[in-house]
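The record is given unchanged here:
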Amino acid sequence: MPNPAELNPADDTLAALLPDGVLRDVTPAYLDEPRGRFHGRAGLVAAPRDTDEVAAVVRACAARRVGIVPRGGGTGLVGGQVMPDGPAPLVLSLERMTALRGIWPEENVLLAEAGMTLQAVRDAAAARDRLFPLSLASQGTAAIGGCLSTNAGASAPCATAPPARCVWGSRRCCPTARSCAT
């Protein structure tokens, strides 16, 4: 693990190494936690379209010793999607990776890229007679990657209901057949 003091800021030198079309403007949407409690910094924002572009971005950052802050849907409330100090990192946004890679209903498996919205995942599951029970305050607009990677939605949408994990199980062992929802 590199020492943070040895990292370089993301800059135009790094930008020249990145695939065409992946850079975005650095805007407050990429730097602020939704409640305004945490504010970050970034030298560049990359929004790759596929895993090959993600790999190219990671290789370029590793070669230049530039830190990466991954960003899913930007709905996190713990400040993990922002870097408040140190060398300006590259923010790696997964918002453009929105493909549904496959559904295997007999195995209760759905493979979605990180930028796919919760509503799109729910719709895809419903089209195969399955239920995707993740529940969030932002409902269908949240990107699925951050929700699952942090196990968001493990609590119930209201204080009087039992935790969703008690009802549905964890995301890894969630019973998705419609018969389980009744």
